[in-house]
Write a structure and sequence with these properties.
By secondary structure, the protein is an alpha/beta fold. Helices cover 29% and strands 25% of the residues.
C-alpha cells in the first residue's frame, strides 16, 4: 500500500490553488478523480455556460442592430456551431489541467472510498494519506416528480450535450441555472417556459430586483408560471408532457425538452464518510470548522461539498484558507469572506453582502441608495439601460453593508464594492474616489448622494 503526505479526492477549483504550494514543499501527492478534472466550473458550469451566454448575447445584439444604425440582412443560428465553440473552450481547459495533474502527482482515475480515516480505496488500489482533502463538489438535485425516471430529463450537464436546438424548453426552477440557460436558449430561438414554486423568481434578491428580472426576460419572450408545482411528467413520442398545479387548479403543457434546475446536493454519498468518522449535516454537506477541517482534523473538505459556498471563487478561497492553516503561514478563515456572486443573465445581476430585505429582517438601522441604469451614461451609450443599482449602508458607521448592481457591467463593478466591504471602508471613501469616465463604475460614488433611511418596524425588522 502506497503512502502519501496528501491525498486529494476530487479536483474542483481549489486544486489549482493548493497544489503548487504542496508541490513546492516537496510533499508526495495522490489525486483521485473519477470524472473530468476541474470540477463543475470548467466542465459544466462557469466556463461552458458563460461561453453559451456570450453566443446568445451576439444573437441578441444582431437582432438589435437597427438600434445602432447597422443593417444586417439575415441572421441564422448555427446551434451546432455554438455548441462546438462551447465544447472547444471547456475541453481545452480540462485537457491541459489533466495533463499537468498527471505530470506532478500520482493520478488515480477512479472513485475514492474511505476504508478508515487514513486509508482510501481507489479502483484496484488502496492508498494511505497523512492528510486528506475532499474536494468533490456538488451535483444536480433529482426532483421528486412522478414519472421522472421514465423521461430523458436534462440537468446542467445534459443540456450541454444537446446537438439540436430545443423547439420548446420547459424549465423547472426560476433561479440562477434555470434563468441563465432559459434566456440563452430563448435568444437562440427556442420557446422557453419556466415553472417556479415560489411567488417570484430569484427569491434571494429584493422583490423589485425579481420584478425587473422577470419583466426583461418576459420582454424577450420567456413565459413564467409562478406558485407552480410539477406533479407528473411523461413522454409521448418526441414530446414531454408536464402536469403541474398552480393554486387550486391543475394544468398540462407540452414541450420537447425539460431542464430540472431545482438545486444541488453534495457529492459525498459515495465516499463512505462514516468509515472515516467524518460528520455531515442533515443535507449531506461535510461539516467543517473555520479552516475547512472536518471532525477528523487531518481531513479537510473544501469547496461546494462543505456547504460554505457554491461558487468557484468561494472554492478558491477555501483553498487559500487551507494553505494558511496547513502551513501555518497566515490567518485566513472561511467566515472572513463576504458573500459575492453574479447571475449571468444579460444584463448580469451582481450581489455583494447584504441587500435591503436582509437588512430589514435583521432590524439594522440602515440607509439605502438607488439609481436606475437609465441614468448611467455608459449604459445609454451602449443602449443597455435595463436594471438598477442599490447600496445598503450602516447608518452609525457609514460602512457599506451590501450592494446589488443589476445592469450592464455589473459583474465587473461589483468587485469594487466587494473590496470596500472587505476593507471596512466608509462610503465616503468611494465618494472621494476619482473613477474614469465613461464607465458604469463612475456612478457608484453618486449612489450615496441621496441615501434614504430604511424603514424598519419594531416587530421583527419587517418593512413598514
Amino acid at each position: 500500500m502506497k503512502s502519501y503526505d496528501v491525498i486529494l479526492i476530487g479536483t474542483g477549483q481549489a486544486t489549482g490553488t493548493i497544489l503548487p504550494k504542496i508541490l513546492k514543499e516537496k510533499l508526495s501527492v495522490a489525486i483521485i478523480e473519477e470524472d473530468r478534472v476541474g470540477g463543475t466550473c470548467v466542465n459544466w458550469g462557469c466556463t461552458p455556460t458563460k461561453a453559451l451566454v456570450a453566443s446568445a448575447r451576439v444573437a441578441r445584439m444582431v437582432r438589435r442592430s437597427d438600434d445602432f444604425g447597422i443593417e444586417v440582412p439575415k441572421m441564422q443560428i448555427n446551434f451546432a456551431g455554438v455548441m462546438e465553440r462551447v465544447n472547444a473552450i471547456r475541453n481545452d481547459a480540462t485537457s491541459g489541467f489533466r495533463k499537468w495533474l498527471e505530470e506532478v502527482s500520482d493520478f488515480y482515475p477512479a472513485q475514492g472510498r474511505f476504508i478508515d480515516e487514513h486509508t482510501v480505496a481507489v479502483g484496484e488500489s488502496t492508498i494511505r494519506g497523512e492528510a486528506i482533502i475532499i474536494h468533490t463538489g456538488t451535483r444536480a438535485r433529482k426532483p421528486d416528480i412522478l414519472g421522472i425516471n421514465t423521461i430523458p430529463w436534462l440537468n446542467n450537464r445534459g443540456i450541454l450535450d444537446l446537438k439540436e436546438l430545443p423547439e420548446h424548453l420547459l424549465i423547472v426552477g426560476g433561479s440562477y441555472i434555470g434563468l441563465e440557460f432559459g434566456q440563452a436558449f430563448r435568444r437562440f430561438g427556442s420557446r422557453v417556459t419556466v415553472f417556479e414554486h415560489g411567488e417570484r423568481i430569484v427569491y434571494r434578491e429584493d422583490p423589485e430586483i425579481s420584478t425587473i428580472a422577470q419583466e426583461l426576460l418576459e420582454a424577450e419572450g420567456m413565459d413564467f408560471h409562478l406558485n407552480s408545482s410539477p406533479l407528473y411528467v411523461e413522454q409521448k413520442g418526441k414530446k414531454i408532457i408536464l402536469r403541474y398545479a398552480q393554486g387550486k387548479d391543475e394544468h398540462e403543457i407540452t414541450g420537447t425538452h425539460i431542464l430540472m434546475a431545482t438545486g444541488r446536493i453534495p457529492s459525498s454519498a459515495e465516499l463512505n464518510l462514516s468509515a472515516a468518522g467524518i460528520e455531515t449535516d442533515k443535507n449531506g454537506y461535510i461539516s467543517v470548522d473555520d479552516y475547512g477541517r472536518t471532525s477528523k482534523k487531518h481531513i479537510y473538505a473544501l469547496g461546494d461539498v462543505n456547504g460554505k459556498g457554491a461558487f468557484t471563487h468561494t472554492s478558491v478561497h477555501d483553498g487559500q484558507v487551507f494553505l494558511d492553516h496547513f502551513f501555518k503561514q497566515g490567518k485566513r478563515r472561511i467566515s472572513d469572506r463576504t458573500r459575492t456572486y453574479v447571475m449571468y443573465i444579460d444584463p448580469p445581476l451582481a450581489r455583494v453582502g447584504m441587500n435591503e430585505t436582509e437588512a430589514a429582517e435583521k432590524g439594522i438601522d440602515a440607509l439605502v441608495g438607488t439609481m436606475p441604469m437609465s441614468l448611467v451614461s455608459r449604459a445609454k451609450e451602449k443602449a443597455e439601460t435595463l436594471g438598477t443599482m442599490k447600496v445598503v449602508v450602516e447608518k452609525s458607521s457609514g460602512k457599506l453593508l451590501g450592494a446589488t448592481i443589476f445592469g450592464v457591467g455589473g459583474d465587473e463593478v461589483i468587485g469594487m464594492l466587494a473590496l470596500a466591504i472587505q476593507a471596512g471602508l466608509p462610503y465616503s471613501t468611494l465618494q472621494n474616489t476619482v473613477i474614469p469616465h465613461p464607465t458604469v463604475g463612475e456612478m457608484v460614488p453618486w449612489l450615496f448622494a441621496d441615501l434614504k433611511l430604511l424603514p424598519v418596524s419594531n416587530r421583527g425588522g419587517k418593512h413598514v
